[in-house]
Amino acid sequence: MKARILNIVVAADILAFALITFGRSRRNETISGAAWSLEVDGKWQGKFFRPKIDWLFSWAEKDHCQRTWLRENKSQLWNGSNL
């Protein structure tokens, strides 16, 4: 049941980001993953939002945005337990 709820939350996140960007997001890109990518690219949006998102999810995992980006873009490295 927990996995199903997580899947729904992630799907809602992807949809929300697609709507916010008027469809200019990448396929399966979450807000957290985008924040990491934007910060790496030196964009102000990433520098502003990434620390806040990481703080918001600090109870769940360290470096949430980076780990989310890795899950989205480096799936061959992720086995479901180490990220």
Structure description:
The protein has one domain. The chain has 83 residues and is mainly α. It has 4 helices and no strands. Helix 2 packs across helix 3.
Secondary-structure map:
Layout: H1 2-20, H2 31-40, H3 44-56, H4 64-73
Helix pairs in contact: 2-3, 2-4
Q: What's the number of helices?
A: 4
- The tally of structural domains comes to 1
The major sheet is characterized as: none
Strand content: under 5%
> How many extended strands?
0
* Spatial gap, N to C terminus: 21 Å
Q: Write down the secondary-structure element order.
A: HHHH
User: What is the CA-atom radius of gyration, in angstroms?
Assistant: 13 Å
Low-confidence stretches: none
Structural class: mainly alpha
**Proportion of residues in helical segments:** 55-70%
Mean pLDDT: 89
User: What gross morphology would you assign?
Assistant: globular
Outline of the structure:
63% of the residues lie in helices and 0% in strands. It has 83 residues and is mostly helical. The model has no long low-confidence stretch (mean pLDDT 89).
Annotation keywords:
mainly alpha, 83 residues
